[in-house]
Amino acid sequence: GNETIVRYLIKFGADINIRNNKGETALIKACENGNETIIKCLINYGADINIKNNKGETALIKAYTNGNKTIIKDLI
């Protein structure tokens, strides 16, 4: 699944905190999409939870916006 792909990319040197053209990291996107498995994987591999996108939003803000309490707990 997607977690396997994430682990593979990290294992072979992918930058876990790389940003897209909106300044979003994989962690921010995972929080936006509510993908708890990927979020936990990224956090375990050291993703920076404090990075802000171009709008000034962090992963925590995205999780809060979506109302996912489990993800919020993982990020705090």
Number of helices: 5
Total number of strands? 0
CATH superfamily: Ankyrin repeat-containing domain
Structural class: mainly alpha
Give the helix level as a range of percent. Answer: 55-70%
Overall shape: it is globular
What does this 3D model show about the protein?
The structure is a single chain. This protein is mainly alpha-helical. It has five helices and no strands. Helix content is 55%, strand content 0%. The protein is globular, with a radius of gyration of 11 Å. It has one domain: Serine Threonine Protein Phosphatase 5, Tetratricopeptide repeat (Alpha Horseshoe).
Structural features:
76 residues; mainly alpha; Serine Threonine Protein Phosphatase 5, Tetratricopeptide repeat; 5 helices
Topology:
Elements: H1 2-11, H2 26-33, H3 36-44, H4 59-66, H5 69-75
Protein name: Ankyrin
Keywords: ANK repeat, Repeat
InterPro entries: Ankyrin_rpt, Ankyrin_rpt-contain_sf
Explain briefly what this protein structure is:
With 76 residues, the chain is mainly α. The protein is built from 5 helices and no strands.
